[in-house]
UniProtKB/TrEMBL annotation:
Pfam families: ABC_tran. Transmembrane segments: none annotated. This is ABC transporter ATP-binding protein. The lineage of its organism: Bacteria, Pseudomonadati, Pseudomonadota, Alphaproteobacteria, Hyphomicrobiales. Its main location: membrane. It comes from Agrobacterium albertimagni AOL15.
């Protein structure tokens, strides 16, 4: 039985035996769940545990195969999202669904069931955003907004429906610590008004901080319930994965590793009116080193990744040198041939084509010589049934990728499992240089530990690794040296052993060119 709301109080939402079948696969297996009025309830579990499937049934996106959903004491059939909203259920998805060319108010209008003029909607959205501490300009174009501001749009348009229950899926994965704190203030305000929140997050410290109760899923089943305030992050992770989550055995800084990646005064003009320019970026990464680059989203991380990977070539060929060769004018395929690997931030559409199978995505990611080897002798069947599928199986086993079939479509995997496959796909090539952007975004504790350890092991084997991350815990866990990017400028790199969160924060704030140690920033 699920953990009950406070005695004498009827639940707002009651789920009994909720099951969802995809063929013979049970994504959700007889789930029981109660959510009380005015509570923040955490839904925890590994990637692929069934969390997204469950909330999609609650919001009317998927139809249950069996079981019941009770709302305020009555069984309900939630046929679609509009029906969910009429009941009083709102949802904010992990991946935003916003049109960049439209204004904030226009984007909100598209999601509303009622007809309302843009001017009236703008007024209501502005008032609501101020009331809940989520300031927005209704007339601003989405393309001009930061990721944190876009998150506010999603929350405000859910609140305009006056919901009694709001489902939040990984809401802080794209927020700075300061923006997350503001979000938590909003959630406490909603709670004080008697509204409820179903909160999905892999950040267990914040679950402890804000949630009243937690329900844990594993392999589609409810395996536990608790008061997270009485637990530790380690005990919550243990409940999620069924065992202790291994720590990362950190790599030691290299003594005399050869330079594998050299960037010298790299400047890149903005490719769009909304892109960030890179300004005189320089870095050196040696064999055996992990350089972690910290920064608030939107400060040039994507532009730096594109320049390093060759997705966007630069004017000066010597601005980027890979294993001693000038590659600034070379594309991604040529850089892969020189032994580089790349993992972009966006899984769907950038790192993988969702409609294609894992083996097909693996095949496409290989450089021309790799593909020629697979196709040697004209045996096209090898693509689907030979070497490529063998490699896909090997990667899945190495990275513990949970999947519903032998070679499923990439889009059928949970975000964390697809991320493990994408990282493993690059590691399988044993690159001399690996550049990875946000390696564990939206990934559970167990998967994050596996990915981070894999990056450390690659460095131990003699490769140079660049990790671009907004997660300071991750940075401290893997880095041998740390730099920060702010407004397209990269700070000097400092030994990870000398850094603290405060010092990284100073660098992230744009204080660069420190003399000997980050403490010098206090003099600025």
């Amino acid at each position: 039985m699920p953990q009950q709301p406070p005695e004498g109080e009827k639940p707002l939402l009651t789920v009994r035996g909720l099951t969802k079948l995809f063929g013979s696969f049970k994504a959700c297996d007889e789930i029981d769940l109660d959510i009380g009025h005015g509570e923040i309830h955490a839904l925890l579990g590994e990637n692929g545990a069934g969390k997204s499937t469950l909330v999609k049934m609650l919001f009317g996106i998927l139809a249950p195969s069996a079981g019941t959903i009770g709302w305020e004491g009555l069984d309900r059939v939630i046929a679609n999202p509009a029906a969910a909203r009429r009941l009083g259920i709102g949802m904010v998805f992990q991946h935003f669904s916003l049109f960049e060319a439209l204004t904030v108010a226009e984007n909100i209008a598209l999601s509303l069931d009622e007809k309302i003029s843009i001017s009236e909607l703008s007024k209501k959205a502005a008032e609501l955003s101020v009331a809940y501490g989520l300031p927005l300009d209704p007339n601003a174009h989405v393309a001009d907004l930061s990721v944190g501001e876009r998150q506010r749009i999603e929350i405000v348009r859910a609140l305009l429906q006056n919901p009694k229950l709001i489902i939040l899926d990984e809401p802080t994965s794209v927020l700075t610590p300061q923006e997350a704190d503001k979000l938590f203030e909003t959630l406490f305000k909603l709670k004080a008004e008697g509204r409820s929140v179903l909160y999905i997050s892999h950040r267990l410290e914040e679950v402890q901080r804000i949630c009243d109760r937690a329900t844990v899923l594993r392999h589609g089943k409810v395996t536990g319930a608790c008061d997270p305030r009485q637990e530790t992050p380690a005990s919550l992770a243990r409940m999620m994965v069924g065992a202790d989550v291994a720590g990362v055995e950190k790599v030691e800084p290299p003594a005399d590793g050869a330079v594998q990646l050299q960037v010298s005064n790299l400047s890149v003009s903005p490719r769009t009116p909304f892109a960030m320019a890179l300004k005189n970026v320089s870095m050196t990464v040696k064999a055996g080193e992990i350089l972690a680059i910290a920064g608030v989203a939107g400060n040039g991380q994507s532009e730096l990744f594109d320049a390093l990977s060759g997705e966007y070539v630069v004017q000066n060929p010597d601005a980027i040198r890979l294993r001693g060769k000038s590659v600034g004018r070379l594309g991604i395929n040529e850089r892969r041939l020189l032994g580089a690997g790349f993992v972009p931030e966006e899984r769907h559409g950038h790192a993988a084509i969702p409609a294609m199978s894992l083996s097909e995505n693996l095949f496409l990611s290989r450089n021309a010589s790799d593909r020629s080897a697979y196709l040697a002798g004209g045996k096209i069947g090898l693509i689907r049934h030979g070497l490529v599928q063998q490699a896909a199986r090997r990667i899945s086993e190495m990275m513990d990728v949970r999947k519903s079939g032998e070679d499923p479509a990439a889009g059928s995997l949970s975000g964390g499992n697809l991320q493990k496959f994408i990282v493993g796909r690059e590691l399988d090539r044993q690159p001399s240089v690996l550049v990875v952007n946000q390696p564990t975004w939206g990934v559970d504790a167990g998967a994050a530990s596996r990915i981070r350890q894999a990056l450390v092991d690659l460095a131990k084997s003699g490769s140079a690794v660049v990790v671009i991350s907004q997660d300071l815990d991750e940075i401290f866990e893997v880095a041998t040296s740390i730099a920060a990017i702010s407004e397209g400028k990269l700070s000097d790199a400092y030994p990870a052993s000398t850094m603290t969160r405060q010092r990284i924060g100073i660098l992230m704030g744009g204080v660069h060119g420190l003399t000997t140690a980050p403490e010098a920033a206090h003099a600025h």
